[in-house]
Every structure is written in structure tokens, then in C-alpha cells.
Design a protein that fits this description.
Blueprint: H1 28-55, H2 71-90, H3 95-120, H4 124-144, H5 152-176, H6 190-220, H7 226-252
Helix pairs in contact: 1-3, 1-7, 2-3, 3-7, 4-6, 4-7, 5-6, 6-7
């Protein structure tokens, strides 16, 4: 089965044949437990950077904000997380070690970014967190109940839509180097909001593909370390979903930044 999540490529479970004893293979419960650990690590790391920001924040009598830059944490978390993710994807057997590192680095990134958004839009971070977990929970129920299935047509549609979004973001990044912006879609106008809504929906539906891949790995009797890898892949989608929800909420509150 295909997946638009880079962590779940077509050959993700094409591991070398080996004899796996009882209790040594991948299970759905094991992957869920590992995902819970990674979520906890993200939250702990994010809480640390969040506290670093607001504990050092003070407002002068003139109402001006002091120079408190979270850019360092954002850069370390974003680039460190990307490098760790690439290592995990190409060295799946290292995932019991690299997946927790990825979670901690993403926590630095998300905590710092969320704090900067929170300063501009009070309450936005908890709204984004609640929406992310609420969406994930509802989709999990829909998947387990059979209401939504990762059929071939569904999978191809989500993969194609995710690829299209990736192309738009890539072009935007390249054009940004030449100070050229794609009009409308990154603003807070109606077109920008509709674009963000569409991206949030696609990001959320990617969770269905992630659930299906974890279930497939368990049914194939993949090695035990694939529980960590499955949890890592799920975290990649959750991080993306949270970022897109945060972006959408900021647009709904009138953020016109690109």
C-alpha cells in the first residue's frame, strides 16, 4: 500500500526474512504505546522551550516587547528534526533510538513556534493542540469502525493531493528566495483560509494511511523495532497536522504574515 507519508514508503515492510519468536514481532498495541511515549517527549520538550520563552518575557512600561528570539530553538528543532527523520527513514532499525531524538527536537521547534504565535494570538496554542488530538481521535474511531477505509482509490487520492501540496510549498520556498510570493493562498483572505482548510483536511486524512500501515506491519509480523518506526511515522503526520491547524487558526484571527 502506498502512503504520502515519507516514513511509510512502498518497501517499508520489505525487511529481511527472519525467524521471529513469540512476542518479538510488531504489534498494534506496541506501536500505540511507542507513539504515546513520543507524544510525551514532544510535549515535555515543547513545554521547556515554552517556559524558556515566557519566563524570560517581560513587558516594559511603554508596552514594548523585549528582544526574546526563539529563532535558535526553531532552527535547531527544525533542521535537527529533519536530519534525524532522514536517518530514521533510511535506517529503520535505528528507530528505537532516533525516534525519541526526533520527538525531542520537534518539541523544541513546536514549543518555540507555538510560543511566538501565542504571544500574538493568546490561546491559539491550546486550541491547535486540542484540534489536533481531537481530529486524530475521531479519525482513529472512524478507521477502527470501518467508516473510512484505506482503499486503493482513497490512498491514491490522498497521495496525489499531498504531493500537490508539497509542490506548492516547494515552489513557494524557491520563489521566496527571489522575493516572489504566490498570491492569495498564504494570506488571511478567503482564498488563503480555504487553502489552509484543504491542507488541514489532507493532512488529517493522511492519518488513515498511517493507521493502515501500522496495522499492515503488525499483520505481516514485522520486527519489534518497527513499532518505533510506525510510531515515528505517525508523529510526522501529527506534527504536520498541528502546524497546519496553527496556520489556519492564525489566518482566522487575521494574521496576514506569509
Amino acid at each position: 500500500m502506498k502512503s504520502s507519508n515519507p516514513a511509510f514508503g512502498n518497501n517499508v515492510y520489505d525487511v529481511q526474512a527472519q525467524h521471529i519468536g513469540y512476542g518479538q514481532g510488531m504489534t498494534i498495541a506496541g506501536a500505540v504505546n511507542k507513539a504515546g511515549i513520543l507524544i510525551l517527549l514532544v510535549m515535555l520538550s515543547a513545554a521547556w522551550t515554552w517556559n524558556q520563552f515566557f519566563n524570560s518575557l517581560s513587558v516594559t512600561a511603554a508596552g514594548e516587547y523585549p528582544t526574546n528570539n526563539m529563532g535558535g530553538y526553531i532552527m535547531i528543532g527544525a533542521f535537527g528534526g529533519f536530519i534525524t527523520a532522514m536517518i530514521t527513514i533510511f535506517k529503520k532499525e535505528w528507530s528505537p533510538f532516533t525516534a525519541p531524538v526526533y520527538a525531542l527536537l520537534e518539541g523544541l521547534f513546536l514549543g518555540a513556534l507555538s510560543a511566538t504565535f501565542e504571544l500574538r494570538f493568546p490561546g491559539i496554542a491550546i486550541e491547535a493542540v486540542a484540534a489536533t488530538f481531537g481530529t486524530a481521535f475521531c479519525l482513529l474511531l472512524a478507521y477502527r469502525s470501518g467508516l473510512i477505509r484505506a482503499s486503493e482509490k482513497f490512498t491514491l487520492g490522498i497521495v496525489a493531493a499531498t504531493g500537490g501540496i508539497a509542490i506548492v510549498y516547494f515552489l513557494s520556498m524557491i520563489l521566496g528566495l527571489f522575493h516572489i510570493q504566490i498570491p492569495g493562498i498564504f494570506g488571511s483572505g478567503p482564498i488563503g483560509i480555504l487553502f489552509s482548510v484543504a491542507v488541514v483536511i489532507i493532512a488529517a486524512l493522511n492519518l488513515i494511511l498511517d493507521f493502515a500501515f501500522i496495522e499492515e506491519g503488525a499483520s505481516r509480523g514485522a520486527p519489534k523495532y518497527m513499532e518505533w518506526y510506525g510510531a515515528f511515522g505517525l508523529m510526522v503526520t501529527l506534527v504536520w497536522l498541528y502546524l497546519e491547524i496553527l496556520r489556519l487558526l492564525s489566518k482566522l484571527r487575521g494574521d496576514d504574515r506569509r
